[in-house]
Each structure stands twice: as structure tokens, then as C-alpha cells.
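Annotated sample (chain length 155).
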Amino acid sequence: MIITMKEEGSRFGGRVGAVIYNEDKTKVLLENQDNGRYMFPGGRIDVHEDSANSIKRELIEELNLKADLKLKYIVEMFLESPKTKYHEIGFYYLTVINEKDVANNFKSLDGDGVFEWIPVSELNNYKIMAKPIKNKIANSEIEPDILEHIVYREY
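Output written by the structure step:
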């Protein structure tokens, strides 16, 4: 059972994500949701599951990938769409893998999307749900050894 609560016009959830760089940190791996939106690989946290085990599970389910992960961001996002206000608490982990470990345009093993290696220099051209993290990556503002708490509001 995933941690998500819904009521008319509102949704709250707990999410994990991974900022996955290639070896020279010129690209990041993103999941194309087939609707013009991109997300960092990951998913919803299950009830009674901690975020570290959740991201490990998600990466195996989606990519058959095991990686050394370090918690980098705790993000509280308040996003708005035409019909719903989303409140999400996310735990985002950082890792570097060999780009060849995940082929470009790799179809998710759980069938939800397609993974693509996106050049960091082009990130601003993509609609990425976790905007504050996208901005930090695009502006080379990642300090790997510092855990950051971010609050991002659209409403």
C-alpha cells in the first residue's frame, strides 16, 4: 500500500527519486511519462517502508539497477494542476552509474515510461516535475556531501 491520500481537489503523497548521473556527470537519467513530463526515476513510498529501501526497490523494479545511493534532498513540493493541488514530500538520492548500464530509450520494466539520458546542458528544455532539483542540476549547484531541505511552492 503506497503512501497517498486523495480528496476532491487535493492529493498528498510520499515519493522517492534518484538523481542518476552518467560517469562524467554530463547527463542525467529521466523517465519520460509520455505526456511531455519527465521525472527522476523512483516512485511512491510504501506504508512501513523507509525511503532508502523504497528507492532501492523502485530502481530494481523499474531498471533492474542496484546502485550506491546517498540521500541528497528532502523536498516539500506544493504543485498545482488545473484540477488538483498536490502536496508531496520527496526523498531524492544521488548516484553515478556507467551510462551503458541503462540504454537510452529504455522501456521501464514496470511499463510506466521510457528512460532517457538527458544532457545537463539541455535540462531547462524539459518539463521536469521536481523543478527545484532540475534547477540545481542545470545551474551546477549540487554539493554532493550536503543534505538539503527544499520547500517549493506553486500555490
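Annotation: The first strand starts at residue 4 and ends at 7.
Annotation: The radius of gyration is 15 Å.
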